[in-house]
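Progress note, sequence design subtask.
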């Protein structure tokens, strides 16, 4: 959850829990926007997906996220990922990952 209200939003939420809470915090105590964001951010996992395939999907999703965050700057993404630029290019080819709009 990106906390659009920054620390003040988190602080206000904690104060509400402290003042109005009747015990441990449960998902029902969380704001609906928090639950929606968490549901959207939680990757869907098919039951009994082979580990190798799950790893490949997770790796591809993570690399694409880093590329999006860097504006598809492969050099910057490689630095963040801790790999050589050439290795990232090889990985992108192997995963079939291409910049959106480049078909």
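Output:
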């Amino acid at each position: 959850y990106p906390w659009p209200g920054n620390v003040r939003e988190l602080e206000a939420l904690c104060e509400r829990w402290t003042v109005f809470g009747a015990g441990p915090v449960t998902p029902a105590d969380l704001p609906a926007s928090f639950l929606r964001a968490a549901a959207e951010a939680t990757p869907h996992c098919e039951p009994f997906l082979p580990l190798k395939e799950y790893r490949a999907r997770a790796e591809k999703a993570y690399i694409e996220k880093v590329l999006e965050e860097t504006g598809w700057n492969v050099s910057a993404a490689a630095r963040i990922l801790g790999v050589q630029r050439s290795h990232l290019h090889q990985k992108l080819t192997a995963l079939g990952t291409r910049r959106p709009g480049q078909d």
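The chain is about 60% helix and 0% strand. Work on this subtask will continue into the next period as scheduled.
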